[in-house]
Amino acid sequence: EGVAIIRPEEGINSKPATIVTRMAKLAINTAEKTGDLCYIALDAYFSTGPMFTILKAAVDDKGKQIVHLITRAKSNYVGFTDREFATAKYDDEDKFKLMDRSDFPEFFTAIELNIYNESKIIEYYCTELLWRPIDDFMRFVCVKDSEGKYVLMCSDLNLSPKDIIRIYSYRSKAEVMFLFLKHLIGGFCYRFQTESMPKLSRKIKTDLSTSDESAMHKVRVVVEAVERFVNITGIALGILQYSALTHADEIWNSHTGWQRTRSSEIPSEAVVQCSIQTEFFSSIWKVPFCATLRIIKYKLRKHLIYADFDL
Predict the structure, then answer these.
(1) Beta strands 109-115 and 67-72: pairing type?
(2) Which of 33, 140, 215, 274 has a beta carbon 3.0–4.6 Å from 196's, enabling a disulfide?
(3) Cβ(146)–Cβ(19) below 8 Å
(4) What are phi and psi of 116, to 5 degrees?
């Protein structure tokens, strides 16, 4: 979003690329590089026809779809039943609102699932209906739990309702990741700017088409700097997570912070970061002297001086 002029891409049906189409192509590109059939769990923003259409067209050598989408349907979505002798494929008599199905408890099945790290009793109703935006069948799963009721939709008609619910529950891990990426690592604390970038305004749409080549070059450099910064912080977060999984005992032994109880034997990213910082600054005076170390020592000394002053 915001880079359409810099990276003009084609979306679907010769229309400009959008966040939805870019996400679909990113998922396909990832699946092609890994060589594995994938499921992607996204929120209701991506439950659109173009998203499912692009994923449906991406198949392997055997004609099998390489990426299936599991997402939350919007509350106003409708489906159509398929009648053998219907006069029209999408007849209003065959249409019903998906959320209305939750008003009929006799259609639901109760199961116990371990999701969100806890055991829950969930009621679900699964059906396959024609969905007009893709002109094909879609698997819909109406869910009722302690937090409310919602409808999930899946492009894989052979995936069981239990697996659909379980896979969608993993989507919450993305929110946790962004929480650590933003507040722990500072992944969005960048300040890359250029005077060549038009001023942002809610009333006026930003237009880069009138900028000259010199200004566009500066804008591209800023955008590339932002993306590299975020990618590097993402790598840093991945290193913390990998360290937590592979060196849990060493991290807990070197952790100097206080915790009343441990929620897990695997340390969190914050605990790993604290342990690494403690180990780094305790051995900083033992490593060979260099220009980089000189800068670190200067900033550390400056920080300690101001800390003493505040006390």
Answers:
(1) unpaired
(2) 215
(3) no
(4) 55, 35
Torsion sign, CA atoms 176, 11, 167, 124 = positive
Kindly list the distances between the CA atom of residue 300 and the CA atoms of 115, 124, 161, 287, 305, in Å, as whole numbers in the listed order: 44, 57, 55, 15, 9
For 39, 140, 173, 185, 233, the CA distances from 179, given in Å and listed in that order, are 23, 30, 10, 9, 13
Indicate if the alpha-carbon torsion angle 184, 222, 12, 64 is positive or negative. Answer: negative
Query: Which tokens go with 176?
Result: 């946790």
Q: How far apart are CA 141 and CA 105, in angstroms?
A: 14
* Token pair listed for 42: 């996204």
Give CA separation, 299 vs 278, 305, 310, in Å. 16, 10, 17
- pLDDT tens, position by position, for the chain (311 residues)? 566 677 777 777 777 788 899 899 999 999 999 888 899 999 999 999 999 999 999 998 888 999 999 999 988 888 888 776 666 777 777 788 888 777 778 888 888 888 777 788 889 999 898 898 998 899 999 998 877 889 999 999 999 999 999 999 888 888 888 999 999 999 988 888 877 777 766 776 666 666 778 888 888 888 889 999 999 999 999 999 999 999 999 999 888 877 778 878 899 999 999 888 887 777 666 666 667 777 777 777 666 555 544 43
Task: Tell me the C-alpha distance between 225 and 197, whole Å.
Answer: 14
Q: What is the phi-psi region of residue 15: left when phi exceeds 0, alpha when psi lies from -120 to 50, beta otherwise?
A: beta
State which amino acid sits at residue 137: F
- In this structure, are residues 208 and 5 in contact, taking their beta carbons and an 8 Å threshold? yes
Torsion sign, CA atoms 230, 52, 28, 9: negative
Q: What are the E-state strand segments in the chain?
A: 38-42, 67-72, 78-80, 95-97, 109-115, 118-131, 136-145, 148-154
Is 164 within 8 Å of 70 (Cβ atoms)? yes
> Tokens representing 98?
């998906």
Alpha carbon distance 110, 123 (integer Å): 4
Task: Supply the pTM of this predicted model.
Answer: 0.76
